[in-house]
Design brief:
about 120 residues, mainly alpha, D-Maltodextrin-Binding Protein, domain 2, two-stranded parallel sheet, 5 helices, 2 strands, about 40% helix
C-alpha cells in the first residue's frame, strides 16, 4: 500500500505547497519534508503562514496543497478534501494550551473537539 501511496503522492512534486512557516513549527515542517522526500521530492513552497486556519483558506482558494495535523479536519469543514496519510509513520506531537477562565464559545467547541478525539 505504501508504494502505491508514494506513487500517487509524488504527483504533487510540481504543485505549490502551503504550510506553516518554519519558525512556527520546525517539527511539523521536518515531518512534512520527510514524507515528501519518501515520495522523491521536496515541497514546492508557495506560502508559509503562522496559522493553520490560513493554510485551510489558501488551499480552499486553490493556491496549493498542504499536509496538516489530522485533527484539524473536524474543526474546519471547508470546501476541501482531507486524505489521511495513515501509512506514514511521521507524526507531530501537539499540545493544546488555553485559559479555561477566558475562553469564548467558539474556542470551547475546538477544545471539545480536540479533547474528545480517539487517539
Amino acid at each position: 500500500m505504501e508504494t502505491r501511496l508514494l506513487k500517487y503522492f509524488s504527483v504533487l512534486a510540481e504543485e505549490l505547497y502551503v504550510g506553516l512557516s518554519p519558525r512556527c513549527s520546525p517539527a511539523i515542517r521536518n515531518s512534512i519534508i520527510s514524507i515528501c522526500n519518501k515520495a522523491g521530492f521536496f515541497p514546492n513552497v508557495a506560502h508559509g503562514v503562522s496559522q493553520i486556519n490560513s493554510i485551510v483558506k489558501l488551499v480552499e482558494k486553490n493556491l496549493g496543497y498542504s499536509i496538516i495535523p489530522s485533527g484539524i479536519k473536524k474543526a474546519f469543514k471547508q470546501k476541501i478534501k482531507f486524505f489521511e496519510l495513515d501509512d506514514y509513520p511521521e507524526r507531530a506531537e501537539l499540545s493544546l494550551a488555553y485559559n479555561p477562565k477566558q475562553i469564548d464559545e467558539t474556542s470551547m467547541k475546538v477544545v471539545d473537539l480536540v479533547l474528545n478525539q480517539d487517539y
